[in-house]
């Protein structure tokens, strides 16, 4: 396994950006080289949450070991506010950076698969909103979307617009730009899902979602899952009766998500509770 820190100039963002990349190069078995791997690798573009950074996944989870066991490459950009959306009204193209430039750059630099079925976009909290929007905008690139404890703020944006509160507007404009233009735009996942209803020829990514029952965002995740299923998306959803908006939950559930994406040996969770065991209680079709 190779762990790399990459710093490169983004033409879309017009500045240097930092990311962490994990490539499952040579697998070790004790002191012996067990297997040489050269790719092309399945890839997960893994996004952090609000106030986070790329190394959060390295510092707070064992996702590296889990990905290595499955021969998965990980690309973890540092997203500053955690929400990469296009804002054409102010000429900012953070979404295109994620779905176009970052994918193209890493594929040129590393032995990554170019197949959509081998390319996933994943995120936690606000990073899950990013994964949802950009995955729906580029279903030709991302065959899978992984959502953990997604912060789906569409209703809150509507409230901010209707309230005309300067404080609320300022808060949400840091993420969305002009909030008066969000609903019905490419920042609105309801509008994007409707496009798939209108055009059955669009390739549909499959979804994996999980949110703890004690997470304050649980109802938002249920609503999204219902919306996706009503539009005939393939959705696997888990809602355990423990787990809040916290790293112990994400640490364990990223294992479950990667096991869904590329089945392989599970890694033992470092969480106090064995969340991964909960996925064996009942089939996902009976949840959500």
Secondary structure topology:
Elements (H helix, E strand, L loop, with lengths): L1 E9 L4 E9 L2 E4 L2 E5 L5 E6 L8 H5 L2 H7 L2 E6 L8 E2 L4 E2 H16 L9 E6 L1 H12 L6 E5 L5 H10 L2 H11 L12 H10 L7 E5 L7 H13 L4 E4 L8 H15 L27
Parallel strand pairs: 5-6, 5-9, 9-10, 10-11, 11-12
Antiparallel strand pairs: 1-2, 2-6, 3-4, 7-8
Could you explain how this protein is built, in words?
With 288 residues, the protein is of the alpha/beta class. The chain has nine helices and twelve strands. Strands 1-2-6-5-9-10-11-12 form an eight-stranded mixed sheet, sandwiched between helices. A two-stranded antiparallel sheet has the order 3-4. The protein has a two-stranded antiparallel sheet with strand order 7-8. β11, α8 and β12 form a beta-alpha-beta unit. The protein is globular, with a radius of gyration of 18 Å.
Q: What is the alpha-carbon Rg in Å?
A: 18 Å
Oligomer: single chain
Percent helix, as a range, is 25-40%
The low-confidence runs, each spanning 5 or more residues with pLDDT under 50, are: none
CATH superfamily: Alpha/Beta hydrolase fold, catalytic domain
CATH domain class:
Alpha Beta
Count of the separate structural domains:
1
Structural class: alpha/beta
The end-to-end span amounts to: 36 Å
Helices, by number, come to: 9
Tell me the fraction of residues in β-strands, as a range. 15-25%
């Amino acid at each position: 396994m190779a762990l790399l820190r990459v710093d490169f100039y983004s033409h879309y963002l017009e500045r240097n950006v930092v990311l962490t990349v994990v490539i499952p190069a040579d697998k070790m078995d004790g002191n012996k080289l067990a297997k040489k791997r050269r790719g092309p690798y399945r890839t997960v573009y893994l996004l952090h949450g609000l106030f986070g950074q790329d190394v959060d996944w390295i510092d707070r989870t064992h996702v590296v070991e889990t990905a290595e066991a499955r021969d998965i490459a990980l690309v973890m950009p540092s997203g500053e506010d955690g929400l990469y959306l296009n804002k054409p009204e102010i000429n900012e193209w953070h979404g295109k950076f994620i779905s176009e430039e970052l994918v193209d750059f890493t594929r040129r630099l590393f032995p990554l698969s170019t197949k959509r079925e081998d390319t996933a976009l994943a995120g936690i909290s606000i990073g899950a909103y990013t994964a949802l929007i950009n995955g729906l905008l580029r279903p030709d690139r991302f065959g899978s979307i992984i959502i953990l404890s997604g912060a789906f703020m569409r209703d809150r944006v509507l409230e901010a617009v209707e309230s005309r509160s300067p404080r609320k507007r300022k808060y949400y404009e840091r993420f969305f730009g002009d909030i008066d233009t969000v609903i019905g735009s490419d920042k609105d996942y309801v509008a994007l899902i409707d496009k798939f209803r209108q055009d059955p020829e669009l390739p549909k990514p499959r979804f994996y979602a999980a949110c703890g029952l004690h997470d304050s965002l649980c109802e938002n995740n249920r609503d999204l899952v219902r919306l996706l299923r009503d539009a005939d998306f393939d959705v696997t959803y888990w809602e355990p009766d423990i787990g809040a908006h916290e790293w112990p939950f994400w640490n364990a559930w990223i294992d479950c998500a990667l096991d869904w994406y590329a089945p392989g040996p599970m890694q033992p969770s470092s969480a106090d509770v064995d969340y991964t065991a909960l996925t064996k209680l009942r089939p996902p079709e009976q949840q959500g």
